[in-house]
Amino acid sequence: MPEVEIRKIVTSVEDIFHEGGPRANTPHKRGAIFAVIRNPFAGRYVEDIQPFMEDLKPLGVDLAQRLLAALGGDAKRIEGYGKGSIVGAAGELEHGALWHAPGGYAMREVLGGSKAIVPSTKKVGGVGARLDVPVTHLNASYVRSHFDSIEVGCNDSPRADELLFVLVMTTGARVHSRSGGLEAADIKGEDGLK
Hints:
seven-stranded mixed β-sheet, 7 strands, Peptide synthetase, 19% helix, single chain, 3 helices, AA_synth_put, CATH 3.30.1330.110, globular, alpha+beta
């Protein structure tokens, strides 16, 4: 199995006090972390790529732990999450899909066993490509107040032979959420949907 070669890790945290409405007493936090790694499959077709997911598991846990720490370290304060990947131009979309299990299960482990599927997105892109990573509530996907996205990217990444793997977390609903639907306080948490 190929070794994970990390070129860089980037962390970003936003403290959002308002979006034009009343100022929040406690700012809403949104955080993103991503690793830019060498794509061991770049420039060629490889049939069996699944073993690389095992190699990515420690990276997933490390990034989830780092992001949680950047957001204050208290897993009970995290309410939303998502993941994504940008594949450099010499790779294929399927290489980005290798992040689904290592990224998603790492966040679930670090956050203490959330119920909802971790939303995801991926694309092939050139240097400087941006990605809107979807966010949903970590215990119920239909909590409308937590529908969000976090844009990520880096001016020098991903290079053609690289992968950019990202995790995102939030500490609550959008700062001025008022669009109705299932509220976080009403989650039953039986199936990860409602």
